[in-house]
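Entry type: protein chain
Record version: 2
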Amino acid sequence: MPTKRSGRTLAVMAYGEPAISPLDVEDLRNRVQKSIDEFLSSRTPTLDRVSPDLVPLTDAITALISGGKRLRPAFAYWAWRATGGDDNDAAMTAAASLEFLQACALIHDDVMDASDTRRGMPAAHRRFASLHRENEWHGSSEAFGVGAAILLGDLCLSWADELLLTSGLPQDALLRAKPIYDDMRTELMAGQYLDLLEQARGGGSVERALQVVRYKSAKYTIERPLHLGATLAGGDAITRESLSRYGLPLGEAFQLRDDVLGVFGDPSETGKPAGDDLREGKRTVLIAIAVERATPVQDSALRRQLGDPALDAGGVATLREIIRDTGALAFTEELIAARLAESVSALDAMDVDPLAAQVLAGLAVAATSRSV
């Protein structure tokens, strides 16, 4: 039987100024890490039996998955609680499985974007390219790094399923939730492709950029984890619809904030070099608005410098100035505020467990301000 734990009170002031982080209520982050650590310990012997040469794979997964905000497990777990589930370790472990799905997405995303770093460390493909160079192996170090990272991401995707299905929750609950989990993964891969397509096309309308936001991030970061937790607890379609009114606009606000941080964020907090999204040429809502409103001179600078891997600090400063001067930054901030307000209003209308409602309110602010 799952282990029950006593609840903790979250003192939340006006819409999410928590006395403690909403991610630490019920000791969520530590318990998620414990579930991850126990699972990795159980899987490492299998890889060891295959070959000692697989140690770099487990080391890379362990390094990547030991960090992060744990937002996806938090939304899944608190939807479980909001739908009447009690506090138990099996539910927490099921929620923790989403961290392996997130790891898969991050690893593959970094390959597609040719990113150098992730969470302040070398991205997985760079890590394996360095391993190849240090050992003076045959062939291309870069090709080896990309191939190894793709396989590492695939392994994380497989382990996400395994951890969910061995979480200890009743089989009928897992069977109910599996279609939600399947839809979430399909939507994530579809969103990743749409993102790749937008880069290839050179961007387009705000509407197209928002479609990428919805499917690449908003659904799998917030809406679908909410659905997963609620369905595991026995919630029906009406429950999921109610949670969607809270989760989908919040998920969009979350990704829009991420886009702003990708251009204006502090590297010590984002774990990526300043202006990295500009070097990668990401076609975000922020960029779509800037392009739409740019003067001929600004448009020329955007076309010349956006997506330049060698973009220096001066180039980053120039593009940031254009984004501000066109009103793209202000417009995006307004979108974030509007979607957050829509999300909080939907939460106010929901009749759920009071503690769960308080935490979800705190998570809404944390997800859009990154104050976690």
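Comment: The two ends are 32 Å apart (CA to CA).
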